[in-house]
């Protein structure tokens, strides 16, 4: 067992294969949602885009949850229309919302509104909504999570923000690809979730996580900002 398995900063769950990984994470998400529905009558969760979580969202939609009592929003979004196939909203809609009939979706980008107004609306929505029972995040090979990219000129401001969401310009950051303008959950926003799940695939991602812990530099490895938060420890679900 290595230092990742014995770390007291998060819980690492290793899965033997992709099918087991998908089934276990979907079941854990459904349990968190049902817990809040039983206690409050409704549940809210924040989802990430990308191809990694898509099969989990598909499996989750098939589980026994009262979807008409579930509100869904995003961890982050590219500055794209929700109808754009490269947006996180489109991914979540295609992999989950079309299957989870009745679930309510709050996109971060509002068509026709400028970026600052979209961020304002996202913060207003977050501050007046039920506390999320869970947030699902990923991690890039550069150590970014959500849209908190190392080297971005807005990173420090986003990390220090006391609001749930911030705008971020990741121009020049390779991980942002051709979409430098973003809306991202801040560490302050992330810690509002009762549970946080980090979904990883492949041995390279474990190496990045190991390097992040060794560096202990949250500017160089923003994933650390999702690990060292108050509340429940981050749960890391990994499979090769």
TrEMBL record:
Chain ranges of the Glucosamine/galactosamine-6-phosphate isomerase domain: 17-223
UniProt organism field: Stenotrophomonas rhizophila
Pathway: Carbohydrate degradation; pentose phosphate pathway; D-ribulose 5-phosphate from D-glucose 6-phosphate (oxidative stage): step 2/3
Keyword Glycoprotein: no
Matching InterPro entries: 6-phosphogluconolactonase_DevB, 6PGL, Glc/Gal-6P_isomerase, NagB/RpiA_transferase-like
UniProt keywords, alphabetically: Hydrolase
NCBIfam families: pgl
SUPFAM superfamilies: NagB/RpiA/CoA transferase-like
Physiological role: Hydrolysis of 6-phosphogluconolactone to 6-phosphogluconate.
Protein name: 6-phosphogluconolactonase
Molecular-function annotations in GO: 6-phosphogluconolactonase activity
Source organism, top-level taxon: Bacteria
EC number from the UniProt entry: 3.1.1.31
Recorded catalytic activity of this chain's protein: 6-phospho-D-glucono-1,5-lactone + H2O = 6-phospho-D-gluconate + H(+)
Family: Belongs to the glucosamine/galactosamine-6-phosphate isomerase family. 6-phosphogluconolactonase subfamily.
Single GO biological process annotation from the record: carbohydrate metabolic process
Gene this protein is translated from: pgl
The UniProt record lists the keyword Transcription: no
PANTHER family for this protein: 6-PHOSPHOGLUCONOLACTONASE (PTHR11054)
Enzyme class: hydrolase
């Amino acid at each position: 067992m290595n230092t990742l398995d014995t770390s007291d900063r998060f819980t690492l769950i290793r899965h033997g294969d992709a099918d087991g990984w998908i089934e276990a994470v979907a079941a854990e998400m459904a349990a968190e949602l049902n817990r809040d529905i039983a206690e409050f009558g409704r549940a809210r969760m924040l989802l990430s885009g990308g191809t990694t979580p898509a099969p989990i969202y598909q499996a989750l939609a098939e589980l026994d949850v009262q979807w008409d009592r579930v509100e869904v929003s995003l961890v982050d979004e590219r500055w794209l229309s929700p109808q754009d196939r490269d947006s996180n909203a489109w991914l979540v809609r295609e992999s989950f919302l079309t299957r989870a009939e009745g679930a309510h979706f709050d996109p971060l980008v509002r068509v026709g509104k400028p970026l600052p107004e979209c961020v304002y609306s996202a913060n207003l929505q977050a501050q007046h909504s039920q506390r999320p029972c869970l947030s699902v995040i990923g991690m890039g090979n550069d150590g970014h999570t959500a849209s908190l990219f190392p080297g971005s000129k807005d990173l420090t401001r986003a990390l220090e923000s006391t609001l749930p969401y911030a705008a971020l310009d990741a121009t020049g950051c390779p991980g942002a690809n051709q979409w430098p303008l973003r809306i991202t959950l801040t560490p302050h926003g992330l810690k509002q979730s009762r549970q946080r799940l980090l979904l990883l695939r492949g041995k390279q991602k474990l190496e990045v996580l190991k390097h992040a812990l060794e560096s202990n530099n949250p500017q160089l490895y923003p994933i650390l900002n999702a690990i060292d938060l108050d509340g429940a420890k981050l749960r890391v679900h990994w499979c090769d």
